[in-house]
Design goal:
Elements (H helix, E strand, L loop, with lengths): L1 H4 L6 E5 L3 H13 L3 E5 L2 H11 L3 E5 L7 H9 L9 E5 L4 H9 L4 E4 L4 H11 L4
Parallel strand pairs: 1-2, 1-3, 3-4, 4-5
């Protein structure tokens, strides 16, 4: 397995979620694989952190206060610098409507919570440009 995760070293991953538990879980899983993890509690905090840290891939919760995941994703995709950055939606809702709305705002993939380590790593391997 080590050869598969070697490419994840120094990959910068952002996790945006208002749940401290989700942020911490994702951060711990990804750091064990060698990723550089940046977290944000909502879309507003995320937008400034994205400009500072330039993540390689972004995981964003849909249901957040102030600026939800759909709005956050749309703002990221409307920025020419970050348009190509993969954005993976995270949600406890799994309806076709939610998935379609995620696609409309430019999300790359949609993961349903609770997610597994394999879900996160699979999305990263499929969508991030591994260095």
């Amino acid at each position: 397995m080590a050869e598969n995760t070697a490419g994840l070293r120094d990959l910068r991953v952002m996790v945006i979620d208002d749940s401290k538990t989700i942020r911490r879980t994702a951060e711990n899983l990804l750091k064990k694989e060698g990723c550089d993890v940046v977290t944000a509690v909502d879309g507003f905090e995320a937008l400034s952190r994205i400009a500072e840290t330039r993540p390689d891939i972004i995981f964003v919760d849909i249901m957040m206060p102030r600026l939800d995941g759909y709005q956050t994703c749309a703002l990221i995709k409307n920025n020419s610098v970050f348009r190509e950055t993969p954005v993976i939606m995270l949600s406890s809702k799994d309806s076709i409507f939610d998935r379609a709305r995620g696609r409309i705002v430019g999300s790359t993939q949609y993961l349903t919570k609770p997610f597994t380590k394999e879900d996160l790593l699979g999305a990263i391997k499929e969508h991030a440009k591994i260095k």
